[in-house]
Amino acid sequence: MNILITGSSGFIGSNLRVNLLAQKPESNVMCFDIDTPEEKLSEYCGMADFVFHLAGINRPLKQEEFYEGNADLTQRVLKTLEQLGNTCPVLVTSSIQATLENDYGKSKKLAENYVFAYGKKNGAPIYVYRFSGVFGKWCRPNYNSVVATFCHNVANGEQLTINGRDTALKLIYIDDVIQEFFCALAGQPHLNSEGFCEVPEVYETTLGDLADKIESFRDSRSTFFVANMQNLFEKKLYSTYLSYLPEDEFSYTPKTNVDARGSFTELLKTPDRGQVSVNVIKPGITKGQHWHNTKNEKFIVIAGRGVVRYRKVGQDKVLEYPVSEEHIEILDIPVGYTHNIENTGDTNMVAIIWGNELLNPLNPDTYFEEV
Description:
The chain is built from eight helices and 19 strands. With 371 residues, it is an alpha/beta fold.
């Protein structure tokens, strides 16, 4: 297909462009933006099998620019298609503000009217989306997206300004927008009862909760608690936050507890699925020598070689499991078995350890007993 995108360098346009190139490489993507020569519009409209009209303006210097960048530009694209006799599908992005009496809303409503009239007159398939707040990677901060602004400011160590923590928000994730665009491209958009197209996944939150979640993502570098990935909104918000990290701050150093035996470093924690740590053991050193009632663990040796030993509490039989980087396997540590891990090689042994619960100093559930 020949696919025309207006506003291709904007937030939604750039995400659509790269995903079309990645997921539909057989398509010919034609980009029209503010710096594209005007004569290209006619050329692209003549070739197009599908038009994504995403270009618009929402922060002009003068009020009349709302109408020039939204209504007038939309009318120009439609007239060009009509003059060329091209009745391909046209997808247009509008805003929920089209129901309001401000200049931005009125310019968007006028553009919608042009589109519906064009479709009725020419028989072209028309898909009009009224978006609320779209968030995700590459959205411009300190402009018109509170998510982008909060993510950018928190990631860059700036203080958040919050006016009205209880302010309700409806948000849509950019990847869900792109997936819906692909549905429209296949002629299967999601329609509501008013004749507008919509993205099925809409997330409702408040300004205060949004700020708290984003600040918790920053704090996770010191607490090691990961975001709740079962909550789709939090999962997508965390991915968005990471995209605003300064490029010289992609890495961070966790606290490492070092002694003569090696080191122990906590990596990740979750409220309900325990934590992950890395244990470095020097040659000839044995760690462990304890058992648990309810706490259980998994050991994975990823460097070096050694042996993990088990003995059921109250019995004499000792089990031995050799471990090494040559044969990576996951060892369960059942409750009621005292256990240890010994480095039998001549280099440091590195073991990844998962525990099913976080360490509770008031109830560590760890009892010393040599294997």
